[in-house]
Design brief:
By secondary structure, this protein is of the alpha/beta class. It is built from ten helices and nine strands. The strands form two sheets. A six-stranded parallel β-sheet has the order 5-4-3-2-1-9. It has a three-stranded parallel β-sheet with strand order 6-7-8.
Length: 209
């Protein structure tokens, strides 16, 4: 079974499909898979998100499915029951982090400051989502990376695209979460695949350099 750490090591990109519908989610995820992405996140403010997560769970072994915009422990329970193995939040809530770990899921809390980051680490998180990344910029990440322990992995999300991944990568990003740059409601799977391929090509080139 493909797990988050292995999928991220293979291609450190998370596709955030905010607004995806259950009737299209498998086609969209298949397009992402064809492009080389192995992790997909369904934010809970999408239409019927738990239904989409359940349908994505059919791709277990090929894709890792996560729930995003998870704000409380009840949503953690529902997301895990639907098949999510990663729990992504826009904020740092120790109760959400601890609940995720108890349920056997990987928490990816949102952080902005060193205070957020160390609170998340103290609660048991090791993967940290810098959000919204565009507000802070690569220099902010570089400063954070100087004080964080080696086991902390920071993933910029929010305003990250194929056009600016290089700056983030050189500042210490472990990988990226890509949202509207990959998927917007109304896009076809073909369009998603083309955008995802561009991001995968950029990421692959950065890792070679």
């Amino acid at each position: 079974m493909l797990n988050f750490a292995d999928a991220f090591a293979g291609m450190p990109l998370i596709a955030i499909v905010r607004g995806v519908r259950p009737d299209e989610v498998v086609d969209v995820a298949t397009a992402l898979y064809d492009a080389g992405i192995r992790i997909v996140e369904v934010p809970l403010n999408s239409p019927d998100p738990f239904v989409s997560i359940e349908r994505l769970s059919e791709m277990t072994g090929r894709m890792v499915c996560g729930a995003g915009t998870v704000l409380n422990t009840e949503q953690v329970d529902s997301a895990v029951a639907a098949g999510s193995t990663i729990i992504v939040a826009p904020n740092t809530d120790p109760s959400v982090i601890r609940k995720s770990l108890v349920r056997g899921a990987i928490p990816v809390p949102g952080i902005a400051t060193a205070t957020d980051a160390f609170s998340a680490l103290a609660a048991g998180a090791r993967w940290l989502k810098l959000f919204p990344a565009a507000t802070y910029g690569p220099e902010h990440l570089k400063a954070l990376a100087a004080v964080l322990p080696a086991e902390a992995r920071v993933i910029p999300v929010g305003g990250v695209s194929a056009a600016n991944m290089k700056q983030w990568w050189s500042s210490g990003a472990a990988g990226f979460g890509l949202g509207s740059d990959l998927f917007k409601p109304g896009m076809t799977p073909h369009q998603v695949r083309d955008r995802a391929r561009e991001a995968v090509d950029v990421m692959s080139a950065l890792r070679r350099d």
